[in-house]
Amino acid sequence: QKEVEQDPGPLSVPEGAIVSLNCTYSNSAFQYFMWYRQYSRKGPELLMYTYSSGNKEDGRFTAQVDKSSKYISLFIRDSQPSDSATYLCAMSARGGGADGLTFGKGTHLIIQP
Amino acid sequence: SAVISQKPSRDICQRGTSLTIQCQVDSQVTMMFWYRQQPGQSLTLIATANQGSEATYESGFVIDKFPISRPNLTFSTLTVSNMSPEDSSIYLCSVSREGEQYFGPGTRLTVT
């Protein structure tokens, strides 16, 4: 079993839909959770950073962490064609950027105009 | 955030040769990381590079294959040595700033 599981997709939804992206993990030591967006031939861009369980909202994006289920989610509201990209979940045991990150494989998201 | 540049952006190399990838960040950082992104695979940490100390390598990666330098707080290099086609990948530099990690644009390496 890989440490972080993420459905690679592709996930195709119409413009304006709510998108739900998810990851599961096995290592209970993970405390810090991130979502990155990666456009083709670009480096990953940090979208959301959360600590422990709970929700965090930033504009159209909401990150949820459920440590009891070892399950994290990213919701995108009012999705736009410009949201089409690969979304990577990442996590670490220590915060403060002290550790390298463990990533999922990424979900390829397509927003249809 | 952080502004990170990498050189070269891409290269095609012959097996058995070595390539050095440069990573430059816009201001001083303590922690720098090197990752590999192979097709269809997760981003995988190769090593952590702190200025003034030896790099720390993850399981499956060794210094002889991936030597790293960190001469100052804004610069690092990763060398991919004695390359084989299996080393074809995207190599990414990352820095830690204010607790968050930011990535460079990557170096796309093809080994023939």
Give the SSE layout.
The complex is a heterodimer of chains A (113) and B (112).
Chain A: E1 4-5, E2 11-14, E3 19-25, E4 32-38, E5 45-51, E6 54-58, E7 61-66, E8 71-76, E9 85-92, E10 102-103, E11 107-112
Parallel strand pairs in A: 2-11
Antiparallel strand pairs in A: 1-3, 3-8, 4-5, 4-9, 6-7, 7-8, 9-10, 9-11
Chain B: E1 4-7, E2 10-13, E3 19-25, E4 31-37, E5 43-50, E6 56-57, E7 68-72, E8 75-80, E9 89-97, E10 100-103, E11 107-111
Parallel strand pairs in B: 2-11
Antiparallel strand pairs in B: 1-3, 3-8, 4-5, 4-9, 5-6, 7-8, 9-10, 9-11
Q: Which consecutive residue ranges of chain B, at least 5 long each, have pLDDT under 50?
A: none
Principal-axis shape of chain A equals globular
Structural class of chain A: mainly beta
Number of strands of chain B: 11
State the order of secondary-structure elements of chain B, H for helix, E for strand.
EEEEEEEEEEE
In round numbers, the mean pLDDT of chain A is 94
Helicity level of chain B: under 10%
Number of helices, where a helix is a run of at least 4 consecutive DSSP H or I residues of chain A: 0
User: Largest interface, with Cβ-Cβ < 8 Å?
Assistant: A-B, 26 and 27 residues
Radius of gyration of chain A: 13 Å
Please state the CA-atom Rg of chain B, rounded to the nearest Å: 13 Å
Number of contiguous helices of chain B: 0
Query: How much is the average pLDDT of chain B?
Result: 94
Low-pLDDT residue spans of chain A: none
Head-to-tail CA distance between termini of chain A: 37 Å
Please give the largest β-sheet of chain B: 7 strands, mixed
